[in-house]
Amino acid sequence: VENAREVGDYLMEQVRSLNSDKIKEVRGRGLMIGIELDVPQKPVRERLICDEHVFTGCSGSNLLRLLPPLGLTKKDADLFVEKLNKVLLNTY
């Protein structure tokens, strides 16, 4: 549980630090994280899954949902942020 809190906080901060104009808000608790986009999530999610092999959930038309395993590491979080940034830069 402590890892989920620590890595979840870290992951949310790393996503916020991208300063992408496509990211409207990042919220969550532990490793249950929502990334609200200012653009439709569908193309972003499709590229994450198909091109980057990163599975995310979704809710509505603009929200990516992350529910990673509780054992996620900061290194794993960094890899996700890198891939998310790449997709956001190349999708819109």
In words, what does this structure look like?
- The structure is a single chain.
- The protein is α+β, with helices and mostly antiparallel strands.
- It contains 3 helices and 4 strands; from the N terminus they run αββαββα.
- It has helices spanning 2-16, 41-50, 74-91; strands at residues 23-29, 32-37, 57-59, 63-66.
- Strands 1-2-4-3 form a 4-stranded antiparallel sheet, with helices on one face.
- A hairpin with a 3-residue loop joins β3 and β4 (63-66).
- α1 runs parallel beside α3 (74-91).
- It is globular.
- The relative contact order is 0.22.
- The model has no long low-confidence stretch (mean pLDDT 96).
Strands, count: 4
The span between the termini is 36 Å
Largest beta sheet: what is the strand line-up?
1-2-4-3
Amount of helix: 40-55%
Shape: globular
Largest sheet: 4 strands, antiparallel
Mean pLDDT over all positions: 96
Low-confidence stretches: none
- Classify the beta-strand content into a percent band: 15-25%
- Please state the structural category: alpha+beta
Q: H/E order of the elements?
A: HEEHEEH
Q: How many helices in DSSP terms? A: 3
Rg (C-alpha, Å)? 12 Å
